What does this fold into?
Amino acid sequence: MSVLYNAIVMIRSILFPHTSYTSSMSLVLLFLRLVFGVLFMLHGIGKLENFATLADNFPMVMGMGSRISLILVIFAELFCGIAFVLGLLFRLALVPMIITMVVAFGVVHHGVVAQGELVLIYLLVFLLLAVTGPGRYALDTLLGRCFTSRGDAFSTSTHGLKSKNGANR
It folds into this structure.
């Protein structure tokens, strides 16, 4: 029970951080999420609109076909980009985004900074934001508050165990 409880608490603390952000820091993080998220989503929208053209010639990664690689990139750029902007499951959404940028920099741009500088900028911003979190103005922050204020089983130090009369054990 204790291992499961600790795992759930750890996952929740990663997905819904309890970090106290100042208003100015939260505004900076919101600005970064909006600018880089919308720009990243525009890349995904462009790929989605030109799917038929790109599907046959898109770079293959790890033996996956061009079509599957393109679908995964669209998922990362468009759908994870939306979650990134909203601050919804923020760190989870960053995983495919970061992987996409690592693969793009290494495979498509062959690790040459002059060819992949935009990809490298996205990668660095995403890594920094993975460390800082989404800020106060994010759905994750709101959801985290809902979980802890609701008094669910995993927000108490007694592992949520209640006696018959409703008191914590």
